[in-house]
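User: TetR family transcriptional regulator. Structure?
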Amino acid sequence: MPAPPERPRPTGRRPGDSGTRDAILDAALALFAERGYDGASLRAIAAAAGVDPGLIRHFFGDKEALFATAVADRMQVAHLLARAASADPTTAGRAMTEAYLGLWEGPDTGPIVRALVRSATTSESAARMMREMIGPRIHDATGGDTALAGRIALAASNLLGVAMARYVIGVGPVVDLPRDELVDRLAPVVQHYLTGA
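Assistant: Predicted structure:
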């Protein structure tokens, strides 16, 4: 009796949609962090997630929507910074500095921040998406307080420069500073951005 014909390997949606979706998001985040927005293709992300590329279109539609979901929506950067900056006005600078450095150093948040920065600095499309997502979120997180949103943006810009030097480029004197000393030096500057004249 002849053997039954071999069944073709199924493509498209696989069982366990939520697990599949999370696998795609995890793979996308890793590749965006490693290669930036332009360097991470949908085909490579699908391969890393072990799914058919059609599933990415099924869940997210396109690469821009995948990037927004994998990177921005998985970490509430604006809310975290606004919460720190809106705490006790006398210690807001230290609170925001600690929170921001914690984002770069956290095992879960570090890859997300690196994906954001690497992508936004190498792709105008990614930079535009980040502006469109983060600006309004800071505004919303401060309850529409335009002045505070502007102060937070200035403070975060200063901290971004330090983070780039410490965590991305590896500038010796910045890398060599113990974390507590780095916070001691940065906190008064951030405090001035947040509450100074």
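The domain at 77-195 is CATH 1.10.357.10 (Tetracycline Repressor; domain 2). The chain has eleven helices and no strands.
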